[in-house]
User: Fold this.
Amino acid sequence: MATTSLPFETVRPTPDGRGLVILDQTRLPEDEVEYTLSDRESMAEAIRLLRVRGAPLLGVFGAHALAALASDRAARGERDVARLRGAFDDDVAVLAATRPTAVNLGRALQRMRTSLDGWSDDHPGADTDATAAALRGFAREIHDEDQRMCEAIGTHALELLPTSSDPTTVLTHCNAGALATGGIGTALSPLYLAHARGRALRVFADETRPLLQGARLTAWELARAGIAVTVLTDGMAGALLSSTRVDAILVGADRIAANGDVANKIGTYGLAVLAHRHGVPFYVLAPTTTLDPDCPTGADIPIEQRREVEVRSGMGRTTVPAEAGVWNPAFDVTPAELVTAWITDEGVRHSWP
Amino acid sequence: MATTSLPFETVRPTPDGRGLVILDQTRLPEDEVEYTLSDRESMAEAIRLLRVRGAPLLGVFGAHALAALASDRAARGERDVARLRGAFDDDVAVLAATRPTAVNLGRALQRMRTSLDGWSDDHPGADTDATAAALRGFAREIHDEDQRMCEAIGTHALELLPTSSDPTTVLTHCNAGALATGGIGTALSPLYLAHARGRALRVFADETRPLLQGARLTAWELARAGIAVTVLTDGMAGALLSSTRVDAILVGADRIAANGDVANKIGTYGLAVLAHRHGVPFYVLAPTTTLDPDCPTGADIPIEQRREVEVRSGMGRTTVPAEAGVWNPAFDVTPAELVTAWITDEGVRHSWP
Assistant:
């Protein structure tokens, strides 16, 4: 499958394969700055400082990072395969420790190790250059898979968007876009496909307090790709649905329970309730890896409470008096009954289970 | 009726009656600063810069301002009643022009003029000192009425809050509190009355983007009065109702149409929809002056679109890319069917009309 091209890349290897070039997401939306990472500490720091973020992207980034570090060692003259392998294991440990709860990152790092083990068994006499080249191949494979996953979600979801409305008008929340993946995103992927086919689009993006991923990231990536996007505050979604025809609401998912309940960025549930009242289709778009069969219902999904400072002074100014408390759950749970369809890379589910 | 005292005052005359002392609301929630205003320009500026804000408070402030300016002229030796009256008319014009759409402000200024006309007819030989004293009396009357209006709303609403729950838990939006009035507020008035009676309370306050009146003002005034308050972002209300027993949602109103539809701060409608789903009573608390019999339904209420900058960089940092549009309606409309009861200073209405 050919992949859809965007005018920016979240991560790519340098031409010599010894480093990584990333789009520094902490500088968005004001500045579009690429940042070259050529050593382990700067790569680990890029994760810690959220220069790269988004579950799928962290996996792709981690894989490329392992390949680049091994390639750099080989290029600097490392000829001992055992020492290269030892350094590789250290790299895995250091990168995995940057965000211990990032499942995709840990999974990708582990997969690189397993792939290397298998390849080494099959190539007992390979030198360090060949080993590094093999790692670059594995990383490219993980990246390609991520791109195909995005394209597949988008292709399935595109069939659900009405072709009759002009422009096709959607509302989204947070950022489940290209900036969170190595491809064209999850929730936003059908929009990039529709845009590439010349369909007129109008996207409304909730700003998504407290961290404003909708305003900062979703609005940036859509505008950068030439898609008309309008930002509203989270409390305006009801007024939008009351006053404007919206064809669909598209959101991502952090976890989908066995009964179809969806945990996603805080604010998603309120949108689903509004969509239900206004008869607007509410679509959840996420990779199959998001499905968690070990979690019977949404009530079993643990909800992370984040630091108060995000609400108290998220934008650098104190907006909540010190004497007041703050509640800052990162996610909410949307019951399956409010979801019109779940779209994964494997297809569309209109009912659950 | 005795009025409930709070540990702060939004506006009061100076002891000599020649100036005004205000709580500077632009410095909240970080600093509690009183500001003395002794000339017309600083009074007009206080309105323009939102040092004083809130529809009822602007009316009270405007009345006190007219009285203080006349008192200052008389005290500085003005003996010509006609000149005092000419300056008074100038004061009305200058203050009215600060916020031309603020109905309560214009109404209070006009009422001061009408009262002065009637009083002058009855006291043809009165000197400037007596005239200024009469104006101070009219201003006090408007202030007292505002306080009684707040107390009446609170008294009626208090009967709707369950006494069995401990603590009584409510959710509110924006600021329809003491800081918006010359008394104990509208939507927050039953909370001050309940607190004064020793009832345990727990208040959740939506931060209310874009201008954060909930975080900055509601949280400040409740905490300052010793009432436990917790701030959440607007998108968290759904998660709150899913996870916590909330006894009632209390909101104010900017305008109530003849059919009971309610225009209030953007985000109110989404709360009403969530309240309906969760079976939580949704109460609208507002003075009778908010009822607009000339507006048949909510659809007839004009919705002010405010400046994009409030969403683009409301807290001093750019959070929306320049290429993206912004939608910034100030109010939304909640249909009467979602309102459990309307509480005014005249009583409780459980159905409409």
Observations:
- Chain B has two domains: 11-152, 162-349.
- The longest helix of chain B spans residues 128-158.
- The longest strand of chain B covers residues 201-206.
